[in-house]
Amino acid sequence: MKILITGTTRGIGKAIAALFLERGHEVVGIDRQGASLSHPSYTHYQCDVCDYEHLPEVEGVQILINNAGVQNENDIDVNLKALIHITERYGVREGIKAILNIGSASGHTGAEFPEYCAAKGGVMAYTKNVAMRVAKFGATCNSLDPGGVLTPLNDCVVNDPELWAQIMNETPLRRWATPEEMAEWAYFLTVTNTFCTGQNILVDGGEAINYHFVWKD
User: Which uninterrupted H or E stretch holds 94?
Assistant: First the structure.
């Protein structure tokens, strides 16, 4: 199948692209950085997802994965508005099989930068809207909402022993996910899955279910 993925030069997006290539799919990547993947079935377009006038012409997209995102840097413009534009341009049409938006646990909990949480909360609602509109094509649309993932964006806390210890105390599984684990989820929700739609799938190692119950021993 032909897969269009935004934000493919590192982290979750790169892992998703690599997994789809490994499994024999054609992948088109859009990123403001140059290509970091080399494969005969991979085409890379270097452009900003917010630069609507210069987005590439890509025909026949069967799976769209909106992964491009930022933290505390024009969050609503990149994480929500550009995601909507990309989806309306490439995804909501005849021939689409699945759309996946990479959201965040913060859209569920509100526990991060204000605009980031607002943008990711918007992604959750927009996912349901798109799911209703692409159902007539027999397509699904879901969001994959990770908690902590070991990506370069998170190095500032991963590499701080004190902060990392605090984070682990909030995460029942006592670890963060790898980008490769998120890629497997992305593959499942777009290729394997054909019936689950309009859902916001929270994958956070149990952090959102954690609580602090204090009582006398």
Answer: none
